[in-house]
Automatic annotation (TrEMBL):
PANTHER family associated with the record: ARCHAETIDYLSERINE DECARBOXYLASE PROENZYME-RELATED
Protein name per its UniProtKB record: Phosphatidylserine decarboxylase proenzyme
Organism whose genome encodes this protein: Qipengyuania xiapuensis
Family statement: Belongs to the phosphatidylserine decarboxylase family. PSD-A subfamily.
EC nos: 4.1.1.65
Active-site residue list: 208
The protein's annotated pathway: Phospholipid metabolism; phosphatidylethanolamine biosynthesis; phosphatidylethanolamine from CDP-diacylglycerol: step 2/2
Gene this protein is translated from: psd
Membrane topology: Peripheral membrane protein
Length: 249
């Protein structure tokens, strides 16, 4: 029953309230709604109604629901809502491997499993940390704004790389990647911050891609085409190499 489930802060029923609207979106929604009222005042109904619906769409895009986060140290949870578009072996990003002068080691060089998640404009765009730990690196890389569905977006598009390290030394890197329409990556955290698993770390406006670099020796528990939910869907179990076949229907 819904009453038996609490939100991620233990504050009450998960389904008892509507999702909050993130402050990043309130100004856009209010501006669109204000224009619709202005058009209505001048009896420009052909403009007033579209602007009213646009304001509702903007508020829906910036919704920020609570999530029920699995509390198991073996689990790596999805950092984003969306659809799994690619699962492949790649070299860990250079920016998360090379010595950055901070005195802390980055990811080990060599191939790791990368899980790529594509977000549509209908998905929640608040991103969350896949594990608990400290933010060791936050690297912004300027780039292009090609379609996030394309594989080359991983290397060519504007993106932000984040490295999280647990107290036991396990490290997970992930990337927020801007898309064709997305033009701004908004961070909520900074290096040195300590995060709980599933905690909000930032957002990407209007369609994008998020990629997770799993630790060495860890494979994906999700399949191509599978819908995932940020902070809830378990995408991997540390040290486990599940044998998954096929594509999600």
């Amino acid at each position: 029953m819904a009453g038996d489930l609490l939100d991620s802060q233990g504050r009450g029923e998960v389904f008892s309230t509507l999702p909050r609207i993130h402050p990043e979106g309130r100004k856009f929604g209010i501006a669109a709604f204000g224009l619709s009222l202005l058009f209505a005042l001048f009896a420009w109904e052909t403009l007033a109604w579209p602007m009213a619906f646009l304001s509702l769409g903007i508020l829906a895009f910036f919704r920020d629901p609570d999530r029920v986060v699995p509390q198991d140290e073996r689990f790596i949870v999805s950092p984003a809502d969306g659809t799994v578009a690619q699962i492949t072996e790649v070299d860990a990003p250079h920016e998360l491997v090379v010595d950055d002068g901070s005195g802390t080691e980055g990811l080990a060089p060599g191939p790791v499993t990368r899980v790529s998640i594509v977000l549509s404009i209908f998905d929640v765009h608040i991103n969350r940390t896949p594990i608990s730990g400290m933010v060791r690196r936050l690297v912004y890389i300027p780039g292009k704004f090609i379609n996030a569905d394309l594989d080359k977006a991983s290397e060519d598009n504007e993106r932000q790389l984040i490295l999280i390290e647990r107290s036991d030394g396990v490290k997970v890197g992930f990337a927020q990647i801007a898309g064709l329409i997305a033009r701004r990556i908004v961070p909520f955290v900074k290096p040195g911050d300590t995060l709980g698993v599933g905690q909000r770390v930032g957002m990407i406006r209007f369609g994008s891609r998020v990629e997770v670099y799993l630790p060495r020796g860890t494979g994906s528990k999700v399949m191509l085409g599978q819908k995932v939910i940020a902070g809830e869907t378990v995408i991997a179990e540390i040290g486990s190499q599940p044998l998954l076949e096929g594509v999600s229907q």
